[in-house]
Specification:
- The chain has 2 domains: 111 residues, Leucine Dehydrogenase, chain A, domain 1 (Rossmann fold); 191 residues, 3-Layer(aba) Sandwich (Rossmann fold), CATH 3.40.50.720.
- The chain is 47% helix and 16% strand.
- It contains 15 helices and 11 strands.
- Helix 6 packs across helix 12 and helix 6 packs across helix 14.
- The chain is globular.
- It starts with 10 loop residues before the first helix and ends with a helix.
- The N terminus is likely disordered.
- Bound molecules: nicotinamide-adenine-dinucleotide (NAD).
- The site of nicotinamide-adenine-dinucleotide has 26 residues, from helix 6 and helix 7.
């Protein structure tokens, strides 16, 4: 009984839980629990109109478990739009494993998780994300074939970060073309926040083209390699927002485009790889638009890694083939920015509209 004191979920909590799931129009949300391995995970399948739902598995120590649900619902919805916009035969899904990766990530736990993935019979396909890598995928693959981005030695397409960085680089060039009339980056001031797997490759592309690159990371050691190879400007975290940049490229965590930071921004363009950069998609997309800052939507420009995985799934894989498909990000980005200007609505909304049109067309064809 929900009124019983011992009930673990109140009526109100249950309503908001199911309300959250149905309002975001998810097809299926699965809770996975295994006591011996301390596995607690949520797999969210947002939409499969265009193909099986693909998205990474993130391990994160959420303060409240409901935050895990909010995160997985938001991330899986983003995957639907990312795949549709990139013309992939994939739907949107994502999974979160709740807990501190240093404490809970064991082979036994990952294998148990793999068994849950397998129960979905390919409706959900997993891949690496924050705190999981291709070696973890190899462990998961002992229990299910519905896993991507395995090491090349195990017959996979390896870590997707360099592909993601290349797409982001092209997105930056398209946005620079839109704002300045030429896509040459030489001399442009570009700030890269987060020199992790993607940020490093992105900064390398930018330096090679002669941009003035400003880099920052909360872990200073991450800046050493790029600083040894190129003349970059190293700045403290949190400083990029106040610099007079041409482009701010978030490549660390999401939600850096919020009420506080947007009002500090001195750049003309925001284009980076981080997922979910807009803390509130509608409000902060609109705020950037009103400030005249051109925003290249994250799920558009960071699709390179997903395109690489898609190439491996549906074609005889070669990195060249993946790069050819990734090149299209440039034109799609320009199309989105041009439509945004004509219709006088933020690019993030335009990108969602184009993706939704593709999903609706697939639904109409199949019905
Ligand atoms: P990563 O963990 O390798 O790198 C993130 C870096 O950001 C780390 O070096 C970390 O120290 C740094 N960082 C964290 N907080 C920071 C802060 N406040 N200021 C400055 N630096 C900070 O992750 P990654 O694989 O490079 O991914 C980067 C972003 O791109 C993530 O948001 C990820 O979800 C997104 N993304 C990655 C891929 C991919 O192929 N790896 C694909 C799509 C989207």
């Amino acid at each position: 009984m929900s009124t019983n004191n011992t009930s673990f979920l109140t009526n109100q909590a249950a309503c908001s839980l199911f309300g959250q799931i149905s309002s975001s129009e998810h097809e299926q949300v699965v809770y996975c629990y295994d006591k011996p391995t301390r596995l607690k995970a949520i797999i969210a399948i947002h939409n499969t109109s265009l193909g099986p739902a693909l998205g990474g598995t993130r391990i994160w120590d959420y303060v409240h478990e409901v935050d895990a649900l909010t995160d997985v619902l938001r991330l899986s919805r983003g995957m639907t739009y990312k795949a549709a916009l990139a013309d992939l035969k994939l739907g949107g899904g994502k999974a979160v494993i709740i807990g501190d990766a240093h404490q809970i990530k064991t082979k036994a736990m990952l294998r148990k998780y793999g068994r849950f993935v397998n129960t979905l019979h390919g409706r959900y396909i997993t891949a690496p994300d924050v705190n999981t890598d291709m070696h973890d995928m190899e462990v998961i693959s002992q229990e299910t074939q519905h896993v991507q981005s395995l090491p090349s030695a195990a017959g996979g397409s390896d870590d997707p970060s360099s592909f993601t960085a290349y797409g982001t680089y092209l997105g930056i060039k398209a946005a620079v073309k839109k704002v300045y009339g030429s896509d040459l980056l030489s001399g442009r001031k570009i700030g890269v926040e987060g020199l992790g797997k993607v940020g490093f490759y992105l900064a390398t592309h930018l330096c090679k083209e002669g941009a003035q690159v400003y880099v920052t990371d909360v872990v200073p050691e991450k800046l050493v390699t790029i600083a040894q190879a190129y003349r970059v400007h190293i700045v403290q975290p949190d400083v990029l927002y106040d610099l007079p940049l041409d482009v701010y490229a978030p490549c660390a965590l999401g939600a850096t485009l919020n009420d506080i930071n947007i009002n500090r921004l001195q750049c003309s363009i925001v284009a980076g790889a981080a997922n979910n950069q807009l803390e509130d998609t509608r409000r902060h997309g609109q705020l950037l638009f009103e400030k005249g800052i051109v925003y290249a939507p994250d799920f558009l420009v960071n699709a390179g890694g997903l395109i690489n995985v898609h190439t491996d799934m549906y074609y005889t894989y070669s990195p060249e083939l993946a790069y050819q498909h990734i090149e299209r990000i440039y034109d799609t980005c320009l199309e989105v920015l041009n439509r945004s200007e004509r219709a006088c609505i933020p690019p993030s909304m335009v990108a969602e509209q184009i993706a939704q049109e593709k999903i609706d067309r697939a639904d109409n064809t199949s019905s």
